[in-house]
Design brief:
This protein is mainly α and 99 residues long. It has four helices and no strands.
């Protein structure tokens, strides 16, 4: 368990320092589950992929803010949820305007 914690600490420190491979590490770790989460909300495969990618762009832009891997993961899921809700609001407004 301790080695897993050390590994997580290594990756989050590398991420905070702008190490590109650390972004790939977290993308591989969370993109599939984040995409599934987004798809469950928006029911659109292309949109869930866009939302997932946008969340990783946001997290990368704010990489120095994250103290732990748990902070990073929480930010990803909260950003994803908010982006999905924004998308659903836009769709609702667009369909209301069309009718």
């Amino acid at each position: 368990m301790e080695s897993k914690a050390k590994e997580g600490e290594y990756w989050i420190n590398a991420f905070r320092n702008g190490d590109d491979p650390s972004l790939s590490y977290f993308f591989k770790l969370y993109s599939k589950s984040l995409g599934y989460f987004a798809f469950r909300l928006v029911q659109d495969k292309l949109e869930d992929e866009d939302i997932t990618e946008e969340c990783f762009v946001k997290v990368w832009e704010r990489r120095s803010d994250f103290k732990t891997e748990e902070n990073l993961k929480a930010f990803l899921y909260i950003s994803c949820r908010n982006a999905c809700l924004d998308y659903l609001r836009r769709i609702k407004v667009k369909s209301a305007v069309q009718y």
